[in-house]
Amino acid sequence: YPSGNLAIIITRERDQYSLIVQEDELKTTKIRAVFQSDGRSTCYYRNGDEWINMSTQGGQYLDQAGNRVRRWMWLNLSPEPHVPLSPIFISLNRYVGVRILAQDKILVSFLAMGRQAKFNMATKAEVSATSQLPPPAQLGEDELLLLAFRVRILQLFDRMRGCINFPSTEQWNKMQPPKYLMTQALKILELCMAADISDELRNSIKAIVNA
């Protein structure tokens, strides 16, 4: 930092390496973020609370009260339906920023006194039939509803296209939704059965995707 305090530390042990971002403080050496080449990374608020946590499967974004604001799965690891990542940009302090664009594009940038350094701390986990990944975390109520409404909207768009292409009501009323939408609807119902949610919510999601 311009103050002379150490901002970023990079360590390496065999084929693994880590990048640690420290706060601009001399006495406390407070850690603001840790990025590891195995796909695990965590960013912290100034008070030490967890801000962003990522693994080889996905990540989550928490507010300062500890509530989960966003959760995503990396596209190459998540079965359909998935919650994809929307690009995230945070400033750890006035000099260090983090951009999360994809699993293979996680950028840590340091800018001070007109000079900039960038580090790509991304990883690309390969998945094979024999890979042993931990089971994915269960989706919450809001995420299940979001997925259900997404499928419903796609179903409505598909019906609108049918109305345009086949003006006769007798024709498009007999048309079935595309196979991928039917598969996604079934997957959402499977997730609902595995999730710890009320029967009322489960029935509401079922009604949305089967409307």
What are the SSEs and their pairings?
Blueprint: E1 8-13, E2 16-22, E3 31-36, E4 41-44, E5 50-54, E6 58-62, E7 68-73, E8 88-91, E9 96-102, E10 105-112, E11 115-120, H1 141-165, H2 169-172, H3 179-194, H4 199-209
Antiparallel strand pairs: 1-2, 2-3, 3-4, 4-5, 5-6, 6-7, 8-9, 9-10, 10-11
Helix pairs in contact: 1-3, 1-4, 3-4
Question: Would you give an account of this structure?
Answer:
Helices cover about 25% and strands about 30% of the residues. It has two domains: about 10-120, no CATH class; about 140-210, no CATH class. Helix 1 (about 140-165) runs antiparallel to helix 3, helix 1 runs parallel beside helix 4 (about 200-210) and helix 3 runs antiparallel to helix 4. By secondary structure, the chain is α+β, with helices and mostly antiparallel strands. It has helices at about 140-165, 170, 180-195, 200-210; strands at about 10-15, 15-20, 30-35, 40-45, 50-55, 60, 70-75, 90, 95-100, 105-110, 115-120. The protein is elongated.
